Amino acid sequence: MIDVLKYEGEKVVVTGVASGMGEETARLLSKLGAEVYGLDINKPEIEIDHFIPVNLNDKSSIDDAVEKLPEKISSIFNCAGVAGSTYANKSFSRLDVITINFIGPRHLIESLVPKMKKEGAIAILSSINGLGWTANKERLLPLLNTSSFDEAQEWYKENEKTFMEPYDETPIPEYTVSKELVTSWVKKRAYELSEQNIRLNSVSPSAVNTTMMDSFNELTGMDVMATSRSKIDRESEREDNAKVLIFLNSDLASYVSGQDIVVDYGFSGHGIHGLI
């Protein structure tokens, strides 16, 4: 068969390789012949070519990881993230969640842009929780316009009240804010990166059958998987989303950039029309 994906021998970076969709993405890329550089705070159980520990909540850890990566890479897959204030038996502040899900990945990606080959590609996991970014873009833009890890953190500390609902002063869930930031950043940054022939896209899954679902259920007090699916007779699996990430960074999507691909088998469209 013709190699339409063209990952054979390519150096790719995958974050979140110790679990969930990051682990599945790294596994599939290895099968496609890519040389995988896996980043995570925990060591993965799957076999990959290179593992580099990284804490996306720590700028110095990100910078150390960047130094250990090769001089030329072709693709970045950012799959790392946390579900909210509690995840994997750990507690996180609102700033931690914003940093791990957006500020840290943005810093990593921007630090790797100079290392990217011409016609390189970046895919980052967002969420259907981030689909409301257009309604909140005025609140998001000042943070998006920060130019560094430290500046972004300081802005958020000083302006956290910005992310409050306009009437009842109920904080917007930090996970939702982080994913709105991811999706809106992709829309904004993709145009600028086009000058360097680098593509940037995001993937927004609905509920996926991973260990993160336990944290979502705990945080919301409900069965998220059962209430966030269409009429298809199976759950969304890790591989469903990993395949879309791999497609977006492949040669098949060579003119696709600035897009957010929703992977939910029609669920969110049903909600947009007020039917949920």
Describe the model:
The structure is a single chain. The chain is of the alpha/beta class and 276 residues long. The protein has one domain: Rossmann fold (3-Layer(aba) Sandwich). It is 40% helix and 17% strand. Helix 1 packs across helix 9. Keywords: Lipid metabolism, NAD, Oxidoreductase, Steroid metabolism.
Helix content: 25-40%
CATH superfamily: NAD(P)-binding Rossmann-like Domain
pLDDT under 50 segments (min length 5)? Answer: none
Classify the secondary structure makeup into a structural class.
alpha/beta
Q: Strand-and-helix sequence, N→C?
A: EHEEHEEEHEHHHEHHHEH
Rg, alpha carbons: 18 Å
Strand content: 15-25%
Shape descriptor: globular
Question: What is the terminal separation in angstroms?
Answer: 43 Å
**CATH T-level topology:** Rossmann fold
Strand numbers in spatial order across the main sheet: 3-2-1-4-7-8-9
**What integer is the average pLDDT?**
88
Give the CATH architecture. 3-Layer(aba) Sandwich
Biggest β-sheet, characterized?
A: 7 strands, parallel
Number-wise, the strands total 9
Count of discrete domains: 1
Summed up, the helix count is 10
